[in-house]
Amino acid sequence: xxxxxxxxxxxxxxxxxxxxxxxxxxxxxxxxxxxxxxxxxxxxxxxxxxxxxxxxxxxxxxxxxxxxxxxxxxxxxxxxxxxxxxxxxxxxxxxxxxxxxxxxxxxxxxxxxxxxxxxxxxxxxxxxxxxxxxxxxxxxxxxxxxxxxxxxxxxxxxxxxxxxxxxxxxxxxxxxxxxxxxxxxxxxxxxxxxxxxxxxxxxxxxxxxxxxxxxxxxxxxxxxxxxxxxxxxxxxx
Length: 237
Known about the structure:
Blueprint: E1 12-16, E2 23-28, E3 33-37, E4 41-44, E5 48-53, H1 63-71, E6 78-83, E7 88-92, E8 100-113, E9 117-121, E10 125-127, H2 134-140, E11 144-156, E12 161-173, E13 177-181, E14 185-190, H3 195-200, E15 205-218, H4 222-229
Antiparallel strand pairs: 1-2, 2-7, 3-6, 3-9, 4-7, 5-6, 8-11, 8-13, 9-11, 10-11, 12-15, 13-15, 14-15
């Protein structure tokens, strides 16, 4: 299965091997640059060079500051790929086994789970210190990215990815959120009628979205999967 961006997209992206083991093939024009999560590269043509920094391409940032932010759980390293005077191709994979989605931004913003971010156009501003979900991420041990600008964003889901159109209110389990449009308001609340039933039922905290906009969710929960798999793993000797 393949997905091609529109002709005026900032990046030419083809998604392959969907939906269970998706990979992104990105074709760059001469001199074109994009940013990707560290460790996402599968393969790259010799006409493409890679540099690494602690911030997105347009904002700079020192290596030491990037290390401090990464150790605090608020940030991470990013790789920047640039085609030379010739066209080039970069293949990207993702941390989670699942699908990918290509989202074109035209000045608006989306909030992306840090573990779901794969890549974005160099023109997209990435705020890696967004604190809107600070109380939420303490449960999921994740951080979130505020992304805004004009260009392409590629995200990955753990399992299948679905889009929900919110018009009013919608409740989503925190571990299943991939991304959502910044036009939505949100609040953290209990899943059941009471806090006791919420936690005994295994759901705990959920996110209540309000307004109009899209929420992208994933079919699997990384925390739940880790809780099942963890006890079965043998410790290294």
